[in-house]
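Input/output pair, single chain:
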Amino acid sequence: MTLPIIPYNPTLKERARELRKNMTPGEQKLWHHLKGKRMLGYDFDRQRPIDQFIVDFYCKLLQLAIEIDGASHDSEEAQQYDCERQLRLEGLGVHFLRFRESEVLNETPQVLEAIALWISTHESTRT
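Output:
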């Protein structure tokens, strides 16, 4: 199966590098479970530029973005931006899973189970 190439703005590379160096505690915790193909053998990148945006985690093979939303996403403006951003990326074929920072920190097994369930129900259409 040939995956579509989703272009990205190269000026985001430096910002993505900064974000990788300054991950939130929730991002750090989830990354521990995603890196090194630990999630059902799938390769995830962290702080991945896609189009004009950077997503927290991305699996190219599944076209799956995982976002961890902390308090900075609580305002009405931030929620509107997140919605518009997600709609634009979904229009490019990207799928989304969103979790609250507190969920990742306090309910890690349930978050990992939700990710594994999504993958198991979608992987046959991707591989």
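The chain has a mean pLDDT of 92. The chain has one domain: 25-125.
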